Amino acid sequence: MNGPKYKRVVLKLSGEALAGESSFGIKPSVIKSIAEQVKEVAELGVEVAVVVGGGNIWRGKIGSEMGMDRATADYMGMLATVMNSLALQDSLEQLGIQSRVQTSIEMRQVAEPYIRRKAMRHLEKQRVVIFAAGTGNPYFSTDTTAALRAAEIDAEVILMAKNNVDGVYSADPRIDPNATKYEDLTFLDVIKEGLAVMDSTASSLCMDNDIPLIVFSIMEQGNIKRAVMGEKIGTIVRGKN
Known about the structure:
Elements: E1 8-13, H1 15-19, H2 28-42, E2 47-52, H3 60-65, H4 70-94, E3 99-103, E4 112-113, H5 116-124, E5 128-132, H6 142-152, E6 157-162, E7 168-169, E8 181-182, E9 184-186, H7 187-193, H8 200-208, E10 213-217, H9 223-229, E11 235-238
Parallel strand pairs: 1-2, 1-6, 2-5, 3-4, 3-5, 6-10, 9-11
Antiparallel strand pairs: 7-8, 10-11
Helix pairs in contact: 2-4, 2-9, 6-8, 7-8
């Protein structure tokens, strides 16, 4: 087998991925499985950064629908991502993988503040870096965080791991049995057709910086390694044709 196709990657995990079949909380068996897959990739010499969402604990959108101030609701969501990041860090370190959590909102007692050059140094030393607390600003999603951090640290690809779908479809395959799975798309296609891959801000960032995106299922063991090795899984979204 040839070596990995990518040297440095950003793995984007939704908060819901950590909850497994549940809609809330962290399922120990799921986070352990994800940590094992990250370990498998890190041991190939691939530099791995992770961005975790917080939807399994709190969604800013729900808070704003309740009448809560949108910025406050979003800050609560950022704190949820910190909880998920610490849980993932603990799972990784139980497997012997060194990791660092860096937060966009300073909380020095539990994690490092985000410093780009320090993050890159950790990656060069084969530590997994977990970016928490989004961009540190309300109104921006963790998808946008993944795109921004990927551009900042010169990642070659964003691996978007999903827990309920194995790629990008023309419609929700759980609702529409006629939904078509795409194998190859451009970010312009995603924006024009309103496909539920990532929000338009994140898509534009990836497109402008020519960072490809691979969308695949996290529920099948070994899929992160398959993506890193360049195997054809899920859907690849490119900046250009």
